[in-house]
Amino acid sequence: MATTICTVSDLAKNSGICALLTINGQEQQVAIYYLPDSEQKIFALGNWDPLGQANVMSRGILGNIGDELVVASPLYKQHFSLISGKCLEEDASVPVFKVVIDGQNVMLAA
What pTM was computed for the model? Predict the structure, then answer.
């Protein structure tokens, strides 16, 4: 079952927002990124930066390293893959969540 997070109009192009969601019975902060010019368009990662030890990933800078779409943590600037959640510089990762756009709704897929 999919859960509506927000609408596309709630998102800022080429930027991130944070949503507090209940996932598997636990509240979690999820960073949602809207890249309208990319093939996938929308990405979601855990908002907790495991290296900086803070909920800041939604404020990261989006970009790419080679063909890899990434977000740079705003604290120490490590790059995390928007696809896998893996850090490119350190042995760390953030959870990845499946999100889709359905009409104007942004949905967390089951």
Answer: 0.94
